[in-house]
Design brief:
about 325 residues, mainly alpha, two-stranded antiparallel ribbon, 12 helices
Length: about 325
């Protein structure tokens, strides 16, 4: 953040210029909750984001064992989404309404939040303006309190994420298009050395650390489906390099982050079928998207980068 100091008749004004925001300039979250009913909704939203798969208002909409905080990490204040890596909630509300290339419409903050339930949560899209939907938007909006508005015409995300997300996704796309079976094997080796202590050697998660793939004993998928951003070889690598290992974000080399996510995303996971992720129209109401048919699988996600997942893995496990 650049600053200019002007003196007018003995009054000193500090002007903040928010162009070209960098990760290191992300401000801290507010410390005081709003008063009254607004404060109650902010606190409710925070609780849902912490306990998405078990909270009474959202548990029936979640199809895996993840919470919003699994990707939108806690900061030093302990609040979800206040971490400074890619995925921070700070500043997010200032970008909306924002254009989404995926939906080919201008999206609201509630749209953006609710759509994540279909993908990262492998579940159903909440109804707009229900208490849960409003509460999550209230919490995320509160984290942007005092920041300048700047609607995003390119992508629906925080101004602190927008350009670095796009730049790094493009960088990793070039790397992943050259991936080989040897990169997969290296990714497995790196995962076991740097990731398995938290996420488990089988990717099923350990304790409070989230699962990355696999099924539960009763056959329920544990992690995000193939429509989630983390399932895309380039986007997943960009997020991992920014945030992982936990507390050591930015320490993985480009090829290391690429190989780890090549390995993780080559594991079996749920297909994404948009038609099955939407509630019946009579319940859901209007769905703000021009894209009404969308399907992804592990195989199609690899094909997007010109890769054959069988050759990458060295077997035929993936359907």
């Amino acid at each position: 953040m650049k600053m200019k100091v002007l003196k007018l008749s003995g009054l000193t004004l500090v002007l903040c210029c928010f162009s070209g925001l960098q990760a290191g300039q992300i401000p801290d979250a507010p410390k005081t909750y709003p008063a009254g009913e607004v404060g109650r909704m902010v606190k409710l939203g925070e609780a849902i984001i912490n306990q998405t798969d078990t909270h009474p208002l959202t548990k029936n909409l979640v199809g895996d064992k993840l919470q919003c905080k699994s990707c939108h990490l806690k900061g030093s204040d302990g609040k979800p989404g206040t971490g400074k890596g890619i995925g921070t909630f700070i500043g997010t509300a200032t970008a909306f309404p924002a254009y989404s290339k995926r939906e080919k419409t201008v999206q609201t903050l509630q749209d953006r939040i609710n759509n994540c339930f279909m993908r990262s949560m492998n579940g159903k899209r909440p109804v707009i303006d229900t208490e849960a939907s409003v509460a999550m938007a209230a919490y995320i909006t509160w984290l942007s309190e005092g920041l300048p508005m700047k609607m995003d015409t390119k992508r629906p995300c925080s101004p602190y994420n927008s350009e670095r997300w796009a730049k790094n996704a493009k960088k990793f796309a070039k790397i992943q298009k050259k991936a080989t079976h040897e990169n997969y094997l290296n990714g497995k080796k790196l995962f076991e050395a740097k990731c398995a202590s938290c996420h488990g050697k089988n990717g099923a998660g350990m304790g409070t650390f989230p699962p990355l793939w696999g099924k539960s004993a009763n056959g329920k998928w544990l992690a995000y489906n193939t429509g989630a951003g983390m399932s895309k070889l380039n986007k997943g690598a960009a997020w991992v390099q920014s945030n992982m290992p936990l507390g050591q974000g930015g320490t993985l080399k480009d090829q290391e982050a690429a190989d780890i996510m090549l390995y993780v995303d080559a594991q079996p996971r749920a297909d994404f079928d948009l038609s099955k992720a939407l509630l019946p129209k009579c319940e859901m109401g209007y769905y703000n998207s021009k894209v009404l048919k969308e399907h992804h699988s592990v195989r199609s996600n690899f094909k997007q980068f010109g890769l054959d997942v069988d050759k990458i893995r060295g077997d035929k496990v993936i359907p």
